[in-house]
Recover the amino acids of this structure.
């Protein structure tokens, strides 16, 4: 969907993160420069609603339904009646959060996963993928991948060690709502990733693990427009059940070669 991605090289030495006790990835990944915006997510909503004719021509709804339901965890939540899916992903519009360039918010982990699966199938059905015999998957980052991209294994905040201020991130209810992605260039990582601190928490693919109040709870990263500076640290994590959502829950997509990373 013409989103921008930035190559994040893998770690050249072994780094174990204190937050998860997991190593930094030693493989490269393409990280979306920005969190998923309302404009991009609406393409998906319109597809489910039968209004995105271009995407439906590329990816028949029946094919998407069949392949999404093959993921047992997502399929159990959605159920087989695809007419009900849109209602499970849709939230009431709120003008404070609905601008095209604002990050999509009030999205559940299931909604974020389904969106990534949709992107993957669109790409795999595209002429570009077929002609070049290349295939990629789009998915949510894992905890250690997100922290590596944000910190480079050494930064306390995505931009470095300097304390957060109003030029670097949207946090602490200083604005009172989400802001357009990329509105805080001083808070970018050295590689150019935007909004890795503040604005919206970003869902991770993996389970939160030890300490979660539900075994199926997932990790979130990055802090938000609501939370304080503590949540803006690269090592900070939050936890929420996958069917939960809030005004400061969003997502970011990573792209990887499908022959290496098939999980969705």
């Amino acid at each position: 969907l013409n989103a921008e991605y930035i190559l994040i090289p893998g770690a050249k030495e072994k780094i174990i993160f204190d937050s998860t006790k997991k190593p930094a990835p030693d493989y490269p990944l393409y990280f979306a420069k920005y969190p998923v915006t309302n404009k991009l997510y609406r393409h998906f909503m319109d597809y489910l609603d039968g209004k995105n004719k271009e995407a439906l021509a590329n990816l028949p709804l029946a094919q998407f339904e069949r392949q999404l339901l093959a993921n047992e965890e997502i399929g159990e939540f959605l159920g087989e009646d695809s007419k009900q899916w849109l209602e499970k992903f849709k939230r009431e519009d709120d003008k404070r959060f609905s601008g095209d360039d604002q990050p999509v918010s009030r999205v559940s982990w299931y909604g974020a996963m389904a969106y990534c699966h949709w992107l993957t199938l669109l790409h795999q059905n595209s002429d570009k993928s077929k002609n070049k015999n290349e295939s990629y998957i789009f998915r949510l980052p894992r905890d250690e991948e997100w922290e590596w991209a944000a910190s480079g294994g050494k930064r306390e905040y995505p931009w470095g060690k300097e304390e957060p201020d109003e030029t670097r991130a949207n946090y602490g209810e200083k604005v009172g709502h989400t802001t357009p992605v990329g509105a805080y260039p001083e808070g970018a990582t050295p590689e150019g990733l935007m909004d890795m601190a503040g604005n919206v928490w970003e869902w991770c693919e993996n389970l939160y693990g030890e300490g979660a109040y539900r075994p199926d709870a997932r990790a979130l990263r990055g802090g938000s427009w609501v939370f304080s500076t503590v949540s803006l640290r690269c090592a900070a994590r939050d936890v929420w059940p996958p069917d939960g959502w809030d005004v400061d829950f969003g997502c970011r997509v990573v792209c990887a070669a499908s022959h290496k990373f098939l999980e969705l």
In short: Residues 155 and 161 are 6 Å apart (CA to CA). The two ends are 19 Å apart (CA to CA). The mean pLDDT is 92.
